[in-house]
Amino acid sequence: MDHFLSKIASLMSSSKSPAGSASGDVAHQLMECAQASAGRDPHQAEELRSAACAYLSVIR
Questions:
Q1: Based on the structure, what is the number of domains in the chain?
Q2: How many CB atoms are located within 10 Å of the residue 10 CB?
Q3: DSSP helix/strand/coil, 49
């Protein structure tokens, strides 16, 4: 769980572009991380996908 939260925090702090493109970048990066971890840790992949959806629903 700590790795999950640190991943989200680092993705959010690394986006220094305007709000419109930053929201897409963070969600895109979360989905890429979910895809990469799907074979190793399906539960974490699902959490990352949920985080991407939640992030987009808050931003939009």
A1: 1
A2: 10
A3: helix
Residue 33: name the closest of 8, 57, 60, 58 by CA: 8
DSSP structure class, residue 17: S
Whether 1 maps to a domain, the answer reads: no
Q: Give yes or no for a contact between 56 and 27, defined as CB atoms under 8 angstroms apart.
A: yes
- The tens digit of pLDDT for each residue in 41-60 reads 999 899 989 999 988 888 76
* Domain carrying residue 27: 19-60
pLDDT given at position 25:
86
Distance CA 52, CA 37 (A): 14
Can you read off the two tokens belonging to residue 58? 């808050």
Residue 51 to residue 8: CA distance in whole angstroms: 8
